[in-house]
Amino acid sequence: MSGESQNFGLRATQLGKRFSSKGGDVQALENVDLEVKQGGFMSIIGPSGCGKSTLLRAFSDLVEPSTGEISVNGKLPSEARAAREFGVVFQSPNLLPWRTVLRNVTLPLQVMGVDRQSRNQTAQEMLDLVGLESFSRHHPWQLSGGMQQRVAIARALSTNPSVLLMDEPFGALDEITRDRLNLELMRIWGNLSATILFITHSITEAVFLSSQIAVMSSRPGRITELIDVNIPYPRNTETRDLPEFYELVIEVRRALLEASALTT
Amino acid sequence: MTTEDAAVAGDATDKKGQKNLPLGVVLTPTLFFVAFITIWELVVRIRDIQVLLLPAPSAIWAMFLEDFGLLVELAVNTGIEAGKGVLIGSLIAIGLAGLVHGISWLNQGLLSYSSTIKALPTVALYPIMTVFFGVTSKAVVAMVAVGVAPIMFTFASRGFSGTSEHDELMRSISANWRTRMTALVLPRSLPYVMAGLRTAVPLSIIISIISEYFGGSVSTLGAYIRRESTLLHTVQVWSAIVMACILGVLVFVAVSLLDRYFLRWHSSRREI
Ligand SMILES: Nc1ncnc2c1ncn2[C@@H]1O[C@H](COP(=O)(O)OP(=O)(O)OP(=O)(O)O)[C@@H](O)[C@H]1O
Ligand SMILES: [Mg+2]
Question: What digits encode the pLDDT tens for the residues A87-123?
């Protein structure tokens, strides 16, 4: 790997992915170029089925690219996965129902062979971070959807990854809970300085969180526009009242409409 | 939905029914039972039926109480044989299902075999067992294991074949085979294993008693029933049958309690 790519937390060059099935082929991704600097926060927004999850799954080594190159911290996704450099937060909380909250968070550490005492301690710290310190002995079903998603975030953070891949983590939540978790995510990210790739359908969420927003169109899935969000961090509740915030919301909405119009 | 899936979910419906109709579920069978026993008692007394043919419930009950210590000992021995058979049969079946899961053609082949074996009257194989193990307790245990294994294999194999979003989670954290098995595959298949046990455990009691009847360890329910019936001790035979029924109910309750404990996380077992 070249020294230059070391500076990128995530990088895709001319990435393409074609799914072949009996019903016909789907070009899920085509000529996708994407660069997220280390410590950057990139959101991806686009119409349903445009290939956002496929892109994230390519970075997480869950999907093999058909063409192009892709790297996480300058490494192949498979290498980065083996080195546990990224954590994934799935669209659903994806917690194991037979494990307590604490034992769900310790799972990645257990896989790494961390001894019980220190993995419990780390997990407890992660639960503190997401504000669920008193729920460690509960089972997932005893928690609300928002709390479950916070457990999933704690789990992804437990191995202290330098890259966080989040697929619509707050997609199933109501607006108030989502706003609160956005604030929490900002606070957590401020302490971690991880690279984040964040998929969302919410324009305000994308603007509030990101340093850059990639807008995608579908069939084939392409990045049509990159929008920089020049609102300084740390961001807080007042950020949503700034005039720049509104302007960016309008700009992203326009870009999204144009991207959708490209869809046949 | 396969029969195995239905068996996993089926329990939930049962429980809901019980919660909504506790009175009907308890009262109606009790009334039927009392009526049945009363009529039996009356018929035996009025028609003056010989004890050899059909003893009155009161006589059976008196004998049951008199021989209680002996009957408990017999039931415990039968229970131990059945338990050993279930344990051995289940371990072999689950182990085998774990080994061949992922090898589709082998799994399919074994599944067809276990379906066939399930449909056969396996107890008829008992004479063959006695060729291998002699007329001993071991032969009874082996017979139970043979009867239980195909049931447990079908359920376990169904459980292991399940997939869920958790598989992607396991891959994303680079879980090794051992963690994948212990943290995901085994707990995920547990509802199927428990559903299998709900069928297999009561069956194991039946197989034990019948095998014992055809010759096996001496101090067991089946052997006792055979011995007493050749001596024409009909009342003793009936009191042993009462004990066998109690044993059947007890093991069923035990399995249900285990089910509730091990599957307290399962969506169909939650009490909210
Ligand atoms: N494993 C697969 N096999 C075949 N086709 C797939 C597969 N995964 C995704 N696709 C196809 O690729 C396209 C992009 O899917 P993807 O899940 O990436 O969309 P998305 O942008 O995440 O949509 P949403 O916003 O609804 O989650 C879709 O047309 C989908 O049908
Ligand atoms: Mg998606």
Answer: 999 988 999 999 999 999 999 999 998 999 999 999 9
Tokens of B83: 């338990």
Region of residue A131 (phi > 0: left; psi between -120 and 50: alpha; otherwise: beta): left
Domains of chain B and CATH, by start? 55-266 (1.10.3720.10)
Q: Do B265 and A84 touch (CB under 8 A)?
A: no
The reply to whether A154 and A189 lie within a common domain is no
Closest CA to B7 of B165, B200, B205: B200
Q: Among A160, A193, A209, which residue terminates a domain?
A: A160
Exposed/middle/buried for A76, CB within 10 Å: 0-12, 13-18, 19+? Answer: middle
Q: Identify which of B165, B175, B267 has the shortest CB distance to residue A92.
A: B165
Kind of pairing between the strands at A26-37 and A8-19: antiparallel
Q: Are residue A194 and residue A211 in the same domain, yes or no? A: yes
Angle of the B137-160 helix axis to the B126-133 helix axis, nearest 10: 120
From the list A84, A94, A110, which residue is nearest B169 (CB)? A94
Structure tokens at B127: 């004479």
**Beta strands at A222-228 and A212-217: parallel, antiparallel or unpaired:** antiparallel
For A51-63, b/e burial (b = at least 16 CB within 10 A) is: bbbbbbbbbbbbb
Establish if B172 touches chain A: CB-CB under 8 angstroms: yes
Closest-CA distance of chain A to residue B263, Å: 8
| pLDDT per position as a tens digit, A64-76 | 999 999 999 988 9
Give the pairing of strands A195-199 and A26-37: unpaired
Q: Which residues are A17's β-sheet partners?
A: A29
Specify the residue with its C-alpha closest to ligand 1, atom 28. A49
Whether the Cβ atoms of residue A186 and residue A234 lie closer than 8 Å to each other: yes
pLDDT tens digit sequence for A130-178: 889 899 999 999 998 889 999 999 999 899 899 999 999 988 888 888 8
The distance in angstroms from the start CA to the end CA of chain B is: 26
In a domain, A259, yes or no: yes
Domain carrying residue A187 = 3-85+163-263
Please state, in angstroms and rounded to a whole number, the distance separating the CA atoms of residues B172 and A81.
7
DSSP type of residue A202: -
Alpha carbon of B8: minimum distance to chain A alpha carbons (Å):
16
Q: Domain with A65 in it: what CATH number?
A: 3.40.50.300
Q: Does B266 touch chain A (CB under 8 A)?
A: yes
Q: In the beta sheet, which residues pair with residue A35?
A: A11
Query: Measured between alpha carbons, how far is residue B239 from residues B30, B31, B54, B64, B102 in Å?
Result: 20, 22, 12, 5, 50
Which pLDDT score, from 0 to 100, does residue A137 have?
93
Q: Which residues contact A234 (CB under 8 A, 6 or more apart)?
A: A186, A187, A190
